[in-house]
Write the structure tokens for this entry.
Amino acid sequence: MTDGSAPPNTDPQTRWVWLHKLGLRVCSALAQGYALLSFLGQSCLELIGWCTHPQRIRWRPILFNLRSAGLNALPIVGLLSLLLGVVVAYQGADQLRQYGANIFVVDLVGLSMLREFAPLMTAIIIAGRSGSAYAAQIGTMTVTQEIDAMRTIGIAPLEMLVLPKLLALALAMPLLTVFADVMGVLGGMLMARTQLGVGFGEFLDRFAQAISLTTYLVGLGKAPVFAAIIAMVGCFQGFRTRGGADSVGQQTTRAVVQSIFLVIVADAMFSVAFSLLGL
Amino acid sequence: MTSQTPEIVLEMRDVVTRFGQHVVHQGINLAVRRGEVFAVIGGSGSGKSTLLREMILLQVPNAGQIRVLGVDLAGITDDAALALRQRFGVLFQQGGLFGSLTVLENIGLPLREHRQLDDQAVDTIAAQKLAVVGLAAEVGAQYPAELSGGMLKRAALARALVLEPELLFLDEPTAGLDPLSAAGIDELVRHVSQVLELTVVMITHDLDLLWQVANRVAVLGDGKVQGIGTMAELAVMDNPLIRPFFDGPRARASQAQASLNPKESSSKPK
């Protein structure tokens, strides 16, 4: 479109179109951020309501969500963490062997899995698995007017649909992360034995020395935060569904992309915070 | 709307609704009397559905006053809203039945939420309502996805009726149904409004439903109520926004049909 010989575009109407579009984009992004924050606020208020009136807690959906988001995710989380442990140990093996520092594969696998990879991998899998399911479920219910019907019957959708997911995931994610820790280290152990000749006993002895409790807790502490991000973004995008079935698909995609994005941003912020705190 | 008119169940005064720059309602005034079947009609985009959403507390107008069953909806507290919601029932256009529950569980849900009843009692009442709307008892065990359009509407109506409401809202009760099912719904609406002595407010395009069942009709157009009255009264009005509902072959057919079976003489279904 831009031709070097063409006279410069002086018409303000067309010249600043890109700025106008940029402005609109920024405005809509800000509006969405604001809406997400107010959704978060409403959910917190409802959660406080549950804390002060425990008889209002809906246990059945909580248990249901624990099973679907937690228990049913065990195989995939376990398998991928095992493979990740294998990959990390394999990548390190060459370098470590050159320096004859084979035993340090324990530090490599242990620190990276427990601190970073296990919580992050779990969060990414759960965002794809459960975050999308949340958005799709709530989106479909919006389209079929089930959400409207729920309000009309006098059931708060936040209480019925959002809080059980939030609580269940906040409980399930740390547990899944522990499982991912175990499987990841197991993968590393297998690789350490076949590639570096570090036996299981030797590995575990070194593991106890090299890996502090802090490392484990730092990784584990991220899990509930990631869970909250995934549950809130998934539900929020579901409620923003407008129109028909195609909108459900769009919102589901948006939920997954945004929650993975925010999880990684949060992880980066954790890293900065932990380094400032010297953990 | 003079003082001699029967008790007013629902009243809207100068209701204004805007979506951004777009003005949907610019001063809606209407009143629904106890015991009548009141219909709201209007072209696509005339704000009928929005008006209904405002009546059932799903949306708040930008200005104006709405009173439902004597309760002013402006600044209503959560507790008052919860109490009010139990006094009216809503049949949504899509039915709004929960896909994860069976029909019987759907119908019983409002009871489980708001009444202290054991499961046995809830199921008994739900089964009664299922019979009221003309569905077989076996339907109760099915899931909404397994039902036909007409059965879905009936099941949703049963749920709307389960708390014995004083006021029933119907959003396009016959939309998307085949003529036979639609005629069945017409009959059912008339039946429940008479037998249960309900006030019914409905949004519809269905000319048969309007001629056969509605006592009074309000026509929305250009953000205002263009006319309120019986179908016969509206039929002689000259307003260009009202005429489309009476001109054209479909409209004339329904009108002719209505004059053959006037509402009063129609056999009362039992």
Chain B touches chain A at residues 53, 56-58, 82, 85-86, 90, 92-99, 109-110, 113-114, 159 (CB under 8 Å).
